[in-house]
Amino acid sequence: MSRIPIRLRLTLAFTVVMAVVLAAMSFFVYARVDSALLASMDESLRSQSLDVSRLDRGRVDLDSAAGGGVAQVLRADGTIVSSDPPALPPLLSNPQLGQVLAGGRTFRSGPLPGLHERWRVLTEATTIRGRPAALLVAKSFVAKDQTLDHLLDELLIAGPLALVLAAVAGYGLAAAALRPVEAMRLRAEAISATTPGARLPEPAGRDEISRLAKTLNEMLVRLEAAFAHERRFVADASHELRTPLALLKTELDVALRRPRSNEELEQALRSASEETDRMTRLAEDLLLIGAGARGGTARCRRAPLLGCRWRSGPGAGSAAPRRARAQRGSGPTRAGARQSR
How many domains, in total, are found in the chain? Predict the structure, then answer.
C-alpha cells in the first residue's frame, strides 16, 4: 500500500467513501419510493372502498378491472353479493370472513384465491340492505413492481456512472492539492551546496502545504548558517595549526643548520616537544569547539592556549580562534631568538 502514490490512495479512499454514500442514498431513495407507492396504493384502495360502499342494490360499480384491481362483497355466510371482475371465487375464507365482520378496516399483502399475482388487499365490514357483509378491494403489485424495477435499473446505471465521475474529480482534486508538493520536491532536488540562497517555492495561502514550505525554507536558512560556520571553523583551524607547525619546523631547521653540542640539541628537542604539546592542546581545543558547535554549547576546560568559552550563536565559533591568533606573536619571536643562537 505504501508504494501506491498518495494521489491514488486519496482517490481510492474518496471513491470507497463515495461508493458507500451512493449505495446508502440509492437504498434510501428505493425504500422511500417503495413506501410512497405503497401509501399511494392504500389511498387508492380507501377511495375504492368508499365507492363500493355506495352500492345500488348490492352491485359493484368500480371499474376496477381497468385499473388492475378487484372488488368483492360477501355476505356473512360466504356467498358473493357482487364481484368485479365477475366470475371470481370467494376471496375470503370463512375464518377470514369472520375476522373482517368482527373487526374494522385492515390492510394486508399477499396472494388471492384464483389469482396469480401479489395483491394489496383492504377488507372492512359493511352492510347490504341492513344485513352484515364484508367488503374486499385489492390492487395488484404489478404496476408498483414495474416502477421499482425501472427505478432500480436507473440506479444501477446512474450509480456507477456517478461513482466514476466522482473518482475522476477526486483524482483531479488530489493532483491539484499535491501539485505544490511536487514543485517543492523538484526544487529541493536541485538544491545543493553549490546553490546557496536557493529556496523552496511557497504557495499562496495559509494552509498546511504553505506552512510546510515556510518551515523547510527556515530549515534551509539554518543549514546554510551551519555550513558557513563549519567552513569558517575549518579555515580558522588551518590557520591555528599552521603556526605551531612553522615553529616546530624552524626549531628543527635551526638545530640541523650546524653542529650542536649535546646541551644545545637537548634544548632544541625540548623546544620542539613544547611546540608539539602546544599543537596537541590546540587540536584538542579545536575538536572540543567543533563538538560544541554540533551540540549547542561547550566550555574549553583545558584551554591554556585558547583560554576561551565557546557559545552557540552568530559569531560564537570565531571567539576561540581569535583568542588563539592573538598568541601567535610569541611564537615567531621565540623562533627568531633561537635562530639567532
Answer: 2
